[in-house]
Each structure stands twice: as structure tokens, then as C-alpha cells.
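Can anyone check this?
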Amino acid sequence: MTYNKEFVEILKTNLYDVNHEMVGDYYYEWTVENWNKISKEVCVFSPKFHALGYKWKLELYPNGVDDFYKGNVSLYLNRDNDDDDCSVHVPVNRVFFIRNCNDKYTYRAATLPIEFLSKSIPSSGHPNLIKKDELFTNNPYTNRSIIENNKCVVGVYFQVYKKEKGLFHREITCFIDDEDKIVKNNGFYEWKVGNWSKHSNKERSPTFTIGDYRWALEIHKDGDGSDNKKYVSLYLFCLNPEIKKGGTWANAILYLRNCEDDTDCFCFDVLEMRNFNTNEKDWGFPKLIKKKELFKCKQSKKCVVQNDKCIAGVYLHIYGDGKAPLQGNQPVFNAPPQQYPQSQNVQNPPPPYYPTNQGMNNNSQMPQYPPYQNTPYQYPPYQYPPYQYPPPFYYPPSTNQDMSNAPSMASVPPMPPMPPMQPMQPMQPMPQYPPYQGQPYQNYPYPNAPYQEPPPSYYSTDVFPNNSGNQEKGDPK
């Protein structure tokens, strides 16, 4: 599809953590023709598109992806995972945007850290891309709103990377959304399940502690109930929820994985925000994975249950009291095109300017230091203002002072000559104080030098010619 290369370069500046081996990148945008109609829907999907060996589509939530983000516009990237198995994990770095149909510089863009699209998680995105009431607000720089004539454009620029070591740990820890809660405790727990084929349907792990609470995992290898007999069910139990009145809020990821330390063969699901209390002690997934998918992977020689064993685990966040600020969006970028030099992240300072007196007459005013033609820094995507050199050392005359009658240099009287310097009188030599005849202390075996009397006072007769008194020459006072 055709797109503006300059706009893509701007979007790239929003990405971070990009030092990975890249499979490829792609840009896609979708024109929303009737916003008033779409805004009444829960979720709408863009047409599917093919890129980098996969099928993709955008998920647009005009009123927020859930009740917590109500009042925001949420935008997600979805990858078709019908042919995936537990070994497919696609690292994706992406920046989402929504913009004016006719002005690409009136838009909102936002990104999140790298996430992984897999059999368990087919889509990921930004839940609070922009507030709904900001869609119709005119931008102060372009004097246009994002939605104009009941239309707008939504889109994404994304990069896909190759798999790296540490894939499992990084993927598991990136999907918990803490919303506005403060994380008090977090941690991992893993339980090695051996003799899978000989286990009964329902097994519970040993008790473990994270934070102030005792927990346990419970697995149903043939499913929890007749409706789930083709699946494996996995639950998290809180064994002492009564220690806090009203229960405790937690979020968790439950998973099954291959027993290797750095494996790419695993499945999981996100529990979302849950309250563990005396009435609701357990939460989990009755359909975590189909049983037949545990024993084979199309794109890997390994599988989740291998040699009749696997690992069940949980990554848990426990929340305390109080609220934390939501992760903010990127600012609105709306500068004119000349403010976005391609592949350049630094603004150069203005050129130095030094006023001179060339071509000036006696009645003309001094040249003024030229002001900046544009504000040196006010437009993103530059995250920090560049260093600005100060103007030359020059003080312009006061605007209230009339310089027309100022005297010229020719009318200034010359300075009077300086009087001749008097010759210096020769200095008399100063009398020398007689040196010691020998070292003050040289007798052994005293460990410390004894007290030495000072030498007698000695002054020549011509030093103090008017000195009077009974003191004799050479006598100490």
C-alpha cells in the first residue's frame, strides 16, 4: 500500500528497545468513514492484510477495551493464530496512531514495550490511545481536529524480531496490566508435574508463599467438568484470604511449559484483575489448552509434556492500597513538515550572529540581535530540548533612549598626557642576619632535640640610628 515515508520516519522515533535482529517491518492504515456509527459499537475490525508471513487486522474499541478504560479509544493489533502451536511466539514492537484524514501532522501516537503474539495471546495494543473528548478538539498549531467531516485514520507501524534467549521469562512478564494499582509483592512459582499419564485428574501443588499470603496451584489434566474434558484446567488458590478485610487484589499469569530452562514451548493465559476473598478463593482457566496440543508441536521437535512430565507455574502480582498513575500516552505531534528532518533526532542551534559597524553613520542606531525565526524547541518527537547557544555578548541600546543626538567619536576631547615618571632612588643594602655557626643540635644519644636558646640579638648601628634607652648593643632584651 502507498504511504508517506516522512510520516513513517516520525513514527519510528517513538519506538524504543529496537536493538534486536529484525525479520521485517510494516506500515498499515485504515480510514474510518463514519465515526458516529462506529462509536456506538463495542469493537470493530479493519480489513485483513498480509505482512511478514502472517495475516493481521486492527481491533478498534471506540469506547475503551473494558470498563476501566471507558472514555478512551483503544487500538490493538491482531495476528491470525489458527495454525499456531505452543512453539510459535512472535516478538512485535509497534506504534499505534490515530490522525486527521487530510493532515498527517494532526495525530496521536503511542507505544508500549515489546510484546509477543502467540497461540495464547493473539492480539496486543494500547488501551488508552486517546480520550474520546480530545478527538474533536482543535489542535492549537494546525487548528484542526483528529476527527473531521466524521472521518479519521487509524493505523500501526510495527517491527517483527527473531527469537532470542530468555524468551519465556520475558514473554510471561510483559502481559500483566497493573492499571492504576500499586504492586506490593510479585514473584514466580513453578511446580514440576511428573508421571503425567499416571496422575489422577485433580492434583494440587505444595503450598508456597508470595507476600503475606499462602497459595497453591490446582491442575485438572482431563478438564474441570464434563464440558471441559477435552482441555486441561489450571487454577490458583489463595489459602488465607481472611488476613485482609475485603480480600486482596491480584493479577496472575498461569502457564504450562516444557521442563527445559530456556524453552520456547509453553502455553499460558492472563488472569486479569481478581479479588481473592473468603467467598472467592480460587481463580483460573477451565480451558487453558487442548489436551492433544500438549504432546505435539508442528513447528518444533519439542512439546509441552515431554518424557511424561511438564512444569505448571504462576507469575503473580499482589496489590497494596493506593493508586499509581496510568502509563501516559505520547504527546500529540502536529508540527509542520519542516520541523521533522528525516533520520535526525537533534535540532541544531541557530547560526552565530555578530553585529558589526560596517556601513553605519554617526546618527544610525546599533544593529539589533536578530530574534529566532522559530521557537527553538516546542515540537515533538524530540524528547528533550537541544542545547541552545547563547547570543553574542552584546547589549542593545534602550528602546526609550534617543540616539539621534548622541555625540560622535570625533567630538570626544582627547585625554591629557600623563606626567613623566620620577626616577627611582637606589635602595640601600639590608644588613644580613648572621647565620648559625653550626647545627643547633647534633649531640647523641638524646632521642629528642633539647630546648635551644635563641641566638643573641644582633643589629648594626645604622639600622636604628635614633634608638634610645639603656639597652647595650648586643645585649638581649
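Reply from J.R.: I decoded it. Residues 328-385, 467-477 have pLDDT under 50 and may be disordered.
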